[in-house]
Amino acid sequence: MAYYRPPGPPADPIIVRDLTRQQDELRTQVRLQPLPQEPQLIAGCDSSFPTPETVLSVFVVLRFPTLEIVEKVYHTSPVTLPYIPGLLAFREAPNLLLAYDKLQRKPDVIMVDGHGIAHPRRVGIAAHLGVLLDVPTFGVAKQRLTGTYQEPALTKGSITPLTEKGGELLGEVIRSKDKVNPLFVSPGHRCDQATSTRLTLACLRGYKLPEPTRLADHWAEEFKKELR
DNA sequence: GCGACAG
DNA sequence: ATCTTGTCGC
């Protein structure tokens, strides 16, 4: 589990302050709304690190709702920022954008591995990426970043709300498979909670992770090996 | 002041 | 995220 966290290099307070302000700006761009129509193509994206100074991002496009693989691409870049909780997007989004450019077929919606608005300033990587691409996005994370929730029942399909003090709904905690740790699903940009949850459930195929992110995760690992 | 902290 | 063997449960 993520109980103990070894100390990393100190984050420059000036950089943190600047990036945090950029998030507050991006936050004003986020729009929560249902998709204009049922998606024909859904994409999944994820990043891996072949070396501590290299980031590799993958985009996998699937036909919806059949989930047949339509296309997969990847791109690598030098790492420019250490991992800082809450600022993940500034570390991975730049390279994700370059990978996205390589796609021949652009998706109607993107499932991002990480949080959407379930973030301290409501701009997790899914929302951040959605605004930069101006494409519908939502996030599927494996760990909580902020908010509180009741553990959902142990059966697949059980759902409980992820809320902020005061009652604000940040996302939903979903049991995607019997007796496995739940997923944290939240809308990113030009998407809403109901759609995010519905699409996540529609993409489950017996694994903990829905197909888009599961495959992106898989290829991020495969391409990483190829670079050795 | 003390803990929490996506990937 | 990454390092890294065996092991418990369905």
UniProtKB/TrEMBL annotation:
Catalysis performed (reactions): Endonucleolytic cleavage at apurinic or apyrimidinic sites to products with a 5'-phosphate
KW Magnesium (keyword) present: yes
**Organism domain of life:** Bacteria
| HAMAP family noted in UniProt | Endonuclease_5
Please provide an example of a Pfam family that matches this protein in its UniProt record: Endonuclease_5
Q: What does this gene product do?
A: DNA repair enzyme involved in the repair of deaminated bases. Selectively cleaves double-stranded DNA at the second phosphodiester bond 3' to a deoxyinosine leaving behind the intact lesion on the nicked DNA.
Corresponding gene?
nfi
Q: Which cofactor does it need?
A: Mg(2+)
Q: What is this protein called?
A: Endonuclease V
Major site of localization recorded for this protein: cytoplasm
Positions bearing the site annotation: Interaction with target DNA: Y83
MF term (GO), any: deoxyribonuclease V activity
Q: What class of enzyme is it?
A: hydrolase
What keywords is this UniProt entry annotated with? Answer: Cytoplasm, DNA damage, DNA repair, Endonuclease, Hydrolase, Magnesium, Metal-binding, Nuclease
Q: Which family, according to the similarity comment?
A: Belongs to the endonuclease V family.
State whether keyword Cytoplasm applies.
Answer: yes
Per the UniProt entry, the Enzyme Commission number(s) are 3.1.21.7
Give the binding site residues for Mg(2+): D46, D113
Localization (cell)? Cytoplasm
User: Where does the signal peptide begin and end?
Assistant: none
